[in-house]
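From the pipeline queue, job 12 of 40. The input is one protein chain; the requested action is below.

Action: predict structure.
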Amino acid sequence: MKKIILILMITTLLLVGCSSHKLRPVDKLKYPALNEIKVPEVVTDTLSNGMKVYFLVDNRLPIIRLQAQAHSGGVTDPIDKIGLAELAASAITSSSEKYPAEDLKQILTDNAISLGGYASSTNAIIYLSSLIEDKDLAMSIFSDVLKNPTFDEEEFETSKTRTISSIYRRNDEASSIAFREFQKIIFGADYPKNYQSEIYTINNITRDDLRNFYSEYFYPNNLTLTVHGDFEIETMKNELEYYFNTWYSPLEYKKISIPEPKTDSKTNVFVVDKQDASQTWVLIGHRSNLLFSDDDYPAMQLLNEILGGGMTSRVYKSVRVEKGLSYTPGAYFAATYKDPGLLYLMAPTATENTILAAQALVEELRLITNEKVTKEELQYAKDSYFNSFVFKYEKPEYTLNSIKTYDYYGYDRNFANILKDKIEKVTIDDVYRVAQKYLKPDDLIYLFVGNKDEFIDDISVLGEVENLDITIKETAEGEVLDYQKGKEIFSKFLNQVKSKTPITSLVATSTITQTSPMGDLALEKTTNIIFPNMINDKIETPMGAMSTIINKDKGTQKMSGQSMPLPAEQLTQMIDQIYLSYFGWLYDPSKLSIGYLQDEIVNDVDYQVVKIQYKDSSMKLWFDKASGLPSIASETMDSPQGAMIIKSTFSNYQLNDSVLCPMTIEMTLPNGTLINSTTYKSIKFNVEISEDKFDF
């Protein structure tokens, strides 16, 4: 180990010296022979409920790490709910039957236990780490969130908000845009591994979707568990049996098929016009179907090391040192275990050098395709590869995950040493052969992310150009919302209709005139609300009084002496609907997402159209420009005939307890047919309401 550290120190000094030409050439540096990689023993077993477990004992630290991996991930997301796997994996760890959200947070904090969940494209992961002295508590928590998640609503909404915030920031960095969009160009935006969540796909996701995702993918036969840390294997297996012995499912392992990527575009030059970019990110490359298991992979890996693997690579020496076109140019060959990979060359460069940098990269690609590499280049590539590769196996958790991955894809568990042997045998002719076989300097995809207005040269010299739209989509229709302007319009409205005194309660009486083919029916209604979740709605009907009572997390409907509890879903919907009502806007507008859509003229009246959203529901509002008041609202509602758009009009605004309210609200179908009208007789705010009103 001391020898390796010493060699690395010498290598670092030497590489620094290369740029200033003060130290000896790298080809004189001698490396000792690499010892065989000692792969720690990973023991595999299966619990009685069918869950496969990988054990890796590591006594260096008094820690235990648990990880459950469900075969699922982003590729299984419905196209209109992309982001579901990520949200579900996170929500699973937010609460459970035994550990409610707030209690769980406190326990994790008090005991320094790390618990979380995330999703990759093909897996959903739940992980936990803890000191070994808290093992029993940790395993109790881990098993309960896996078996009995309750998907805490508040944590779920917070997670959605956090995810949406990250979407808004995803176009901040040119480098992030470049790598993301290059993958989409190479493999197609519709390739499941390239699925990209949008604002509307996240807003489409409900708690029921989380529950359905969990039911479909989280069960013993579809889970792989890894246990790493300071324990004894037989004892740990018995403990796992204890915590999971009641968790069974008849479902078998769920096989997920991913379609082959398809790209039909004939365009080969793509541009993302990022006006605020200080430089251009240049990415050039093409797809490759070479896998880790292929015989040509070792030679291709060394070719990549020579071409663009580090500070001694050809790309680095040419594009940075000799031409001064980029500070961090490079090349990367991405092979995979099963799916198509790619080769790309990159160079972030000054905008005026965009074409020059691209041409310099292609020049190096052509040279390595047409000319054999030198003996010194090949040997240095091997040495560099080995001396970086070996350190990966210093971390037992890397070994554990590697063994699990090898098993999944059917690779030999000794793949690391097998690959090492193959790398050692690669010849100059092998590198030349794979360069000619796999590199395509005449069939390249170009991507430029930068300020297009500042490109000095015409990039169309490289081929047909396509401008990429990376606009963040607010809705499936591609509506673009201005949230700053929407907030300003809504704030102006609120300042006009109410004082700054918070609204805490409401008592209103009204007449609802229901329209039907048999004639109009007038119903008297009394509403009592203590915001946000205590409601008493009483309607006088020809058959007697009908009351709907909601008291926080419980609700009931009463009529003719009969009562029936409200289903949980209906209860949640009714509470949520308060926030999308006129009085809900006044109570707590901070709960709403508000975005300006457009200006519009309706019946010679100028309106500003705003879209507001609360959780999974939304509506559009037309604000009269002259008065600043909402005149029209539209929202999609469920009906026996299916979803339909309902329009409401607000009129006859009057002051009630110093609050300006519409005294008449009419609801119509899209064709103008009147459904009903509500005429308020009295509206009182912040009155004291006895809680007896909300007793069942």
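Job complete. The domain at 43-244 is CATH 3.30.830.10 (Cytochrome Bc1 Complex; Chain A, domain 1).
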